[in-house]
Design a protein that fits this description.
membrane, 25 helices, 3 domains, 564 residues, Amino acid/polyamine transporter I, AA/rel_permease1, mainly alpha, single chain, globular, transmembrane helix, transport
């Protein structure tokens, strides 16, 4: 049984399987420009309109350097994705790559983790879109009833808090939610409260993804042009209002303040991986996917650095701890018309991000179904639209229903766990491809830098730096009990052990330093996530493993001799 759990698919098998999809294959219509547009649509989403403010507040003007450092860290992962995309040009993304490198059980775990990442992140994006949309309508004098723009979960919790502690205990958002619960129409004794905009935008985007990749591409291209135009307008227009004295001090809170925003800044770049889910709809995936991933990161890094410098130059960094920093800085300078334009563009930006991730989710399900690990219906291709029809509809339902009724703020970091997990396996997969000589088939390869000695030297330097300059960190460890160390620092211990193991294996097998750097960067960022997110993620994986052993293990095409 253990042998079957780790059975692998060859690149030739995977490419051959793509020829046996119901109703023919997917429509190959995407070129480099389209892929870059989709990547920018995913990357330049809600992050540049919200989290960039908090990062600037914590790090000051020096946070612009954090975007550069984070982009370099992302490059390690992006290069690994690019090599896999050129080697295995199919739609499964990290799921398919794990099938080639590590075997079926790892592929299933990654595929199951990606379902969580894409679905939960899109719920959050849809709810975020609703907030921006409602705010934009208010700017035009249109006020929707609060019971149509609030989740029933948030309304109920706010109402209970109001009953227990009184109105003075509620913040502004909670007062609005409690008001929605109080004045909502009722079905019997049940208040009818839904986040209607979040549900409607998900249905609309799902419909667009369902009817075709061409239509999705066109919509994405239009929205990307609009929002990049607005970002450039902010950069160029804001440059005339920059006060150089606001850039002093450049790093007011030191390195700790800069690095405090590393998680949010890192996820401002996430999106390049979603491009790989469209591999079977690319005209020339082995050439175009690697190029588009690198182009996306380069373009977005330049935009992020420039816009951060403009924001911190227009107002003092201490004023940027707001949810809408771009609109705020122009309001503070009296340019209300610019703030209005930004408000509209933020809705467009988030719509395009929702579109790209809603495009990627069903294509991963389609690939898993094609391999026999999910119900065959998920791999059905619409005869007219040439899209994974059933998978797209189910993905729409999975996102729409929770977005209508639940608040998803608790689960934001949960999507991060699945993302980092996938990134680590993709970087590790490149080391496997190199070790087995499969990389020779790749039309794009991660530049090779011999890490035989560098990985170990890096470990020694990191430990030396921690010993010499990490007094605060070491003191924290000294005051933790063994139970607290296990509960809160387990991943940190795993990080250092992994680095040690990679140093030994790197010496033995001459590992390339870039994929190793990708593994370590992503693993370090994983240590910053809360324990509660890991508990939920482990629970999710256990559910997934139960489904695999009850259905996927038996119906796997490899288990049935690769028969359809």
């Amino acid at each position: 049984m253990a042998h079957k759990l780790f059975r692998k698919k060859t690149v030739e098998q995977i490419q051959r399987d793509t020829q046996h999809i119901g109703s023919g294959g997917l429509a190959k219509v995407l070129g480099v420009k389209d892929l870059v547009s989709l990547g920018i649509a995913a990357i330049v989403g809600a992050g540049i309109f919200s989290t960039i403010g908090l990062a600037s507040y914590n790090g000051g003007p020096a946070v612009s350097l954090l975007f550069v450092f984070t982009a370099i860290a992302c490059v390690f992962t992006a290069l690994s994705y690019a090599q896999f995309a050129s080697t295995v040009p199919v739609s499964g993304s990290a799921y398919t790559y794990a099938y080639v490198a590590f075997g079926e059980i790892f592929a299933w775990v990654i595929g199951w983790a990606l379902i969580l990442e894409y679905a939960v992140s899109n719920m959050v994006v849809a709810i975020s879109w609703s907030e921006y949309f409602v705010s934009m309508l208010k700017g035009f004098g249109v006020n929707l009833p609060t019971w149509l723009t609030t989740s029933s979960e948030a309304a109920y919790e706010a109402y209970q808090k109001l009953q227990l502690n009184g109105p003075e205990a509620l913040n502004t958002v909670e007062k609005i939610a409690a008001n929605a619960y109080t004045y909502a129409p009722k079905l019997g004794h049940i208040p009818l409260i839904v986040n209607l905009p979040a549900g409607l935008i998900t249905v609309l985007v799902t419909w667009l993804v369902y009817i075709g990749i061409k239509e999705s591409r066109t919509a994405s291209n239009i929205m990307v042009v609009l929002k990049i135009s607005v970002v450039l307008l902010v950069i160029i227009g804001g440059a005339f209002y920059v006060k150089p004295e606001n850039w002093t001090p450049f790093a007011p809170n030191g390195m700790k303040g800069i690095l405090s925003g590393v998680a949010s800044v890192f996820f401002a770049f996430i999106g390049f991986d979603s491009i790989s889910t469209t591999a079977e709809e690319c005209k020339n995936p082995q050439r175009d996917l690697p190029r588009s991933m690198i182009y996306c990161l380069l373009i977005c890094t330049i935009l992020y650095v420039l816009i951060t410098l403009v924001l911190t130059g227009m107002v003092n960094y201490k004023e940027l701890n707001v949810n809408d920093p771009l609109a705020f800085v122009f309001q503070s300078t009296g340019l209300n018309f610019m703030a209005g334009i930004i408000s509209v563009s933020s809705v467009i930006a988030i719509t395009s991000a929702l579109l790209v991730f809603q495009l990627g989710q069903p294509r991963i399900w389609m690939t898993m179904s094609r391999d026999g690990l999910l119900w065959k219906k998920f791999s059905t291709i619409h005869p007219t639209y040439k899209t994974p029809a059933f998978a797209t509809i189910i993905a729409g339902i999975v996102v729409t229903v929770p977005a209508l009724f639940f608040k998803m703020d608790f689960f934001i970091d949960l999507t991060s766990v699945g993302t980092f997990f996938a990134f680590i396996l993709v970087c590790g997969g490149v080391l496997y491809l190199d070790h087995k000589g499969i990389s020779k088939q790749s039309k794009f390869r991660v530049p090779y830098i011999n890490g035989k000695y560098l990985i170990g030297i890096g470990l020694l330097l990191a430990l030396s730096g921690l010993y010499l300059y990490g007094d605060a960190i070491l003191n924290e460890w000294r005051h933790l009990s063994p139970t607290e160390i296990i509960e809160h620092k387990s991943l940190t211990i795993v990080f250092w052990i992994t680095w040690l193991v990679l140093a030994v294996l790197g010496y033995q097998h001459r590992f390339s330093i870039l994929p190793v750097a990708g593994i370590l960067v992503n693993l370090y960022l994983m240590t910053e996530l809360g324990a509660s997110n890991w508990i939920i993620f482990i629970g999710w994986l256990l559910i997934g493993l139960a489904i695999y052993f009850l259905y996927g293990y038996k119906h796997s095409r490899l288990n049935r001799g690769n028969k359809l």
